[in-house]
Amino acid sequence: MKLITAIIQPHALQAVTDSLREYGVSGLTITEVAGWGRQGGHTEVYRGAEYTIDTIPKVKVEVLADPADEKDIIDLVVASSRTGRIGDGKVWTTEVGTVVRVRTGERDADAL
Fold first, then answer.
1. Which pTM does this prediction carry?
2. Which residues pair with 42 in a beta bridge?
3. What are residue 25's phi and psi, to 5 degrees?
4. Which tens digits make up the pLDDT trace of 60-111?
5. Other beta carbons less than 10 A from residue 7's beta carbon
6. Which residues contact 111 (CB under 8 A, 6 or more apart)?
7. CA distances from 99 to 4, 45, 53, 96, 108 (A)
Protein backbone atom coordinates (compact mmCIF):
# COMPACT_ATOMS: atom_id res chain seq x y z
CA MET A 1 0.00 0.00 0.00
CA LYS A 2 1.07 3.57 -0.64
CA LEU A 3 0.19 6.79 1.11
CA ILE A 4 0.26 9.60 -1.44
CA THR A 5 0.61 13.02 0.19
CA ALA A 6 0.24 16.30 -1.69
CA ILE A 7 0.71 19.84 -0.42
CA ILE A 8 -1.13 22.15 -2.82
CA GLN A 9 -2.52 25.66 -3.15
CA PRO A 10 -6.00 25.99 -1.56
CA HIS A 11 -7.56 27.22 -4.82
CA ALA A 12 -6.51 23.96 -6.55
CA LEU A 13 -8.34 21.69 -4.09
CA GLN A 14 -11.61 21.39 -6.02
CA ALA A 15 -9.85 20.48 -9.29
CA VAL A 16 -7.72 17.86 -7.50
CA THR A 17 -10.65 16.25 -5.68
CA ASP A 18 -12.76 16.22 -8.86
CA SER A 19 -10.02 14.49 -10.86
CA LEU A 20 -9.40 11.93 -8.08
CA ARG A 21 -13.13 11.19 -7.84
CA GLU A 22 -13.33 10.69 -11.63
CA TYR A 23 -10.34 8.32 -11.46
CA GLY A 24 -12.16 6.22 -8.86
CA VAL A 25 -10.41 7.10 -5.61
CA SER A 26 -12.85 6.04 -2.91
CA GLY A 27 -11.56 8.24 -0.08
CA LEU A 28 -9.06 10.88 0.92
CA THR A 29 -8.13 13.12 3.82
CA ILE A 30 -7.83 16.90 3.54
CA THR A 31 -6.03 19.05 6.13
CA GLU A 32 -5.44 22.80 6.17
CA VAL A 33 -1.73 23.39 6.80
CA ALA A 34 0.77 26.25 6.64
CA GLY A 35 4.46 26.35 5.86
CA TRP A 36 7.11 27.76 3.61
CA GLY A 37 9.44 26.57 0.89
CA ARG A 38 11.11 28.42 -1.95
CA GLN A 39 8.10 30.73 -2.04
CA GLY A 40 9.01 31.97 1.42
CA GLY A 41 6.77 34.35 3.29
CA HIS A 42 5.47 37.74 2.30
CA THR A 43 4.81 41.14 3.84
CA GLU A 44 1.44 42.78 4.32
CA VAL A 45 0.43 46.24 5.46
CA TYR A 46 -2.35 46.61 8.02
CA ARG A 47 -3.36 50.09 9.23
CA GLY A 48 -0.05 51.50 8.10
CA ALA A 49 2.11 48.91 9.87
CA GLU A 50 4.05 46.35 7.86
CA TYR A 51 3.89 42.72 8.98
CA THR A 52 5.92 39.75 7.79
CA ILE A 53 3.90 36.59 7.25
CA ASP A 54 6.37 33.69 7.53
CA THR A 55 4.04 30.85 6.59
CA ILE A 56 1.79 30.40 3.58
CA PRO A 57 -1.58 28.60 3.88
CA LYS A 58 -1.72 25.33 1.93
CA VAL A 59 -3.88 22.22 1.80
CA LYS A 60 -2.60 18.68 2.45
CA VAL A 61 -4.36 15.89 0.56
CA GLU A 62 -3.66 12.27 1.57
CA VAL A 63 -4.77 9.24 -0.42
CA LEU A 64 -4.22 5.56 0.43
CA ALA A 65 -3.74 3.66 -2.81
CA ASP A 66 -2.74 0.39 -4.34
CA PRO A 67 0.86 0.56 -5.63
CA ALA A 68 -0.42 -0.07 -9.17
CA ASP A 69 -2.35 3.23 -9.03
CA GLU A 70 0.47 5.30 -7.52
CA LYS A 71 1.82 6.85 -10.73
CA ASP A 72 -1.63 7.63 -12.14
CA ILE A 73 -2.77 9.33 -8.94
CA ILE A 74 0.40 11.40 -8.70
CA ASP A 75 0.04 12.46 -12.34
CA LEU A 76 -3.59 13.49 -11.74
CA VAL A 77 -2.72 15.57 -8.68
CA VAL A 78 0.19 17.28 -10.43
CA ALA A 79 -1.78 18.00 -13.62
CA SER A 80 -4.82 19.37 -11.79
CA SER A 81 -2.88 21.57 -9.34
CA ARG A 82 -0.08 22.97 -11.54
CA THR A 83 -0.14 26.68 -12.36
CA GLY A 84 3.52 26.92 -13.35
CA ARG A 85 4.26 29.46 -10.63
CA ILE A 86 6.40 29.09 -7.54
CA GLY A 87 4.46 27.67 -4.58
CA ASP A 88 2.38 25.10 -6.51
CA GLY A 89 3.35 22.45 -3.94
CA LYS A 90 4.86 18.97 -3.63
CA VAL A 91 3.71 15.37 -3.90
CA TRP A 92 5.38 12.35 -2.30
CA THR A 93 4.62 8.76 -1.43
CA THR A 94 5.22 6.69 1.67
CA GLU A 95 5.17 2.92 2.04
CA VAL A 96 2.31 1.72 4.28
CA GLY A 97 2.62 -1.62 6.06
CA THR A 98 -0.97 -2.55 6.88
CA VAL A 99 -4.36 -0.92 6.40
CA VAL A 100 -7.40 -2.15 8.36
CA ARG A 101 -11.00 -0.99 7.94
CA VAL A 102 -12.14 -0.67 11.54
CA ARG A 103 -15.83 -1.41 10.88
CA THR A 104 -15.31 -4.73 9.06
CA GLY A 105 -11.76 -5.81 9.85
CA GLU A 106 -10.88 -5.94 6.14
CA ARG A 107 -7.18 -5.56 5.45
CA ASP A 108 -4.94 -3.89 2.85
CA ALA A 109 -6.48 -3.61 -0.66
CA ASP A 110 -9.89 -4.80 0.63
CA ALA A 111 -9.84 -1.98 3.20
CA LEU A 112 -9.65 0.72 0.54
1. 0.85
2. 53
3. -65, 130
4. 999 999 999 999 999 999 999 999 998 899 999 999 999 999 999 999 888 8
5. 19
6. 99, 100, 101
7. 14, 47, 38, 7, 5
